[in-house]
């Protein structure tokens, strides 16, 4: 008998002994693993519509869970493109999440949105992007810089291009002095 055959025979015998003389394990004391099932680095996801790239998601680290949900613990950047392929808007956050069931992205921490065409900037601690409705929104405090004016409020909804927005519960607005900004 070869060495591999002896090892296989011994291994099967050991398994038989362990399974026949062990106690029943109470499955209610076992915990379900809810951590990530895969890990990826330097990811780049492209979303297209009719073969035209509409958005690009970049992250240094992506964790995928058994539910299909994603977490971007080292930050996330999302780039929005027009029909010609030009970047029109960017969104970045210190940490990001993707809920597969809702098809919804959430950024948290220092969240920044920049409309490059209108030079509008948004800052908040949490922001959602819904690819289905093509909207970004938050219920948190928001600061928006539009040309020489800064608006502050709680709650905001905008199209994903950050071209038109509604700022809820406006607390104040003021003119920016030279050299001042977000």
Key structural traits:
182 residues; mainly beta; lipopolysaccharide transport protein A fold; six-stranded antiparallel beta barrel; 12 strands; 57% strand; globular
Helicity, as a percent range? 10-25%
Radius of gyration: 25 Å
- Identify the CATH class: Mainly Beta
Supply the CATH superfamily name: Lipopolysaccharide (LPS) transport protein A like domain
Element order: H for helix, E for strand: HEEEEEEEEEEEE
Strand content: over 45%
Name the strands of the widest sheet in spatial order: 2-3-6-7-5-4
- Low-pLDDT residue spans: 3-10
| Residue-averaged pLDDT | 83
Notes on the structure:
The chain has 182 residues and is mostly beta strands. The chain has a single domain (35-175), classed as lipopolysaccharide transport protein A fold, CATH 2.60.450.10. The chain has 1 helix and 12 strands, in the order αββββββββββββ. The chain has one helix spanning 3-21, and strands spanning 36-49, 52-65, 70-72, 76-81, 87-93, 95-99, 104-115, 120-130, 135-146, 149-159, 165-167, 170-175. A 6-stranded antiparallel β-barrel has the order 2-3-6-7-5-4. It is globular. The N and C termini lie far apart (77 Å). Mean pLDDT is 83; it is low at 3-10.
